[in-house]
């Protein structure tokens, strides 16, 4: 059985595109069935449409509060019979109720070697700390930001002369390789969220 996946984006959707590309392989265990954005102008929506994938836009400002907005996202996910959700540059914090409803079925990719550098500006923070390496992490989403159990990580060296942009470019390339691998592991049931 192929697992049906929704990818939530806010921008160009480069990680979403890497998932879509991986899912084209006949033996890949997941299919991207929906791409949803909180921004109508997100470039990734066009990429998804061109790939024949259903798209949706759910903007917070169209709802009285975050809970109602997340209820609309949930409605789209159920309407499209989604099994797993992948956050890929989705720049909005989801409500604890939504996260709990999708617990164990929602992944995020974060541009640091968690638990280091939760939140934003991870590349500049790694450089400022004088770290020798940096990278990215795919993790299960829990209500606390960037704190869920880790599925997979990829490391990249920090090179002399790196600035946040050069480091970000190398980390992004690692993300594009890591996220499809991690999604496949979860879709096959090789990795799952269990009670501690």
TrEMBL record:
Sorted UniProt keywords: Purine biosynthesis, Transferase
Catalysed reactions, as listed in the record: N(1)-(5-phospho-beta-D-ribosyl)glycinamide + (6R)-10-formyltetrahydrofolate = N(2)-formyl-N(1)-(5-phospho-beta-D-ribosyl)glycinamide + (6S)-5,6,7,8-tetrahydrofolate + H(+)
Name of protein: Phosphoribosylglycinamide formyltransferase
All copies of domain Formyl transferase N-terminal, residue ranges: 4-183
Signal peptide start and end residues: none
EC number(s) on file: 2.1.2.2
GO cellular-component term (any): cytosol
Binding-site positions, (6R)-10-formyltetrahydrofolate: 66, 91-94, 108
Source organism of this protein record: Enterovirga rhinocerotis
Superkingdom of the organism of origin: Bacteria
Name of encoding gene: purN
Pathway: Purine metabolism; IMP biosynthesis via de novo pathway; N(2)-formyl-N(1)-(5-phospho-D-ribosyl)glycinamide from N(1)-(5-phospho-D-ribosyl)glycinamide (10-formyl THF route): step 1/1
Gene Ontology molecular functions: phosphoribosylglycinamide formyltransferase activity
């Amino acid at each position: 059985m192929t697992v049906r996946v929704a990818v939530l984006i806010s921008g160009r959707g480069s990680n979403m595109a890497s998932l879509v590309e991986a899912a084209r392989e006949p033996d890949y265990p997941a299919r991207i069935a929906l791409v949803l954005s909180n921004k109508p102008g997100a470039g990734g929506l066009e990429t998804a449409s061109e790939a024949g994938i259903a798209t949706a836009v759910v903007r917070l400002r169209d709802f009285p509060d975050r809970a109602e907005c997340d209820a609309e996202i949930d409605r789209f996910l159920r309407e499209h019979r989604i099994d797993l959700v992948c956050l890929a540059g989705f720049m909005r914090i989801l409500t604890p109720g939504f996260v709990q409803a999708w617990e164990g079925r929602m992944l995020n990719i974060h541009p640091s070697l968690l638990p280091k550098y939760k939140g934003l500006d991870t590349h500049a923070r790694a450089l400022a700390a004088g770290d020798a390496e940096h990278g990215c992490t795919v993790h299960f989403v829990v209500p606390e930001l960037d704190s869920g159990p880790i599925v997979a990580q990829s490391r990249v060296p920090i090179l002399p002369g790196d600035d946040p942009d050069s480091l970000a470019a190398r980390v992004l390339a690692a993300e594009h390789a890591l996220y499809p691998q991690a999604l496949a592991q979860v879709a096959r049931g090789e990795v799952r969220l269990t009670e501690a």
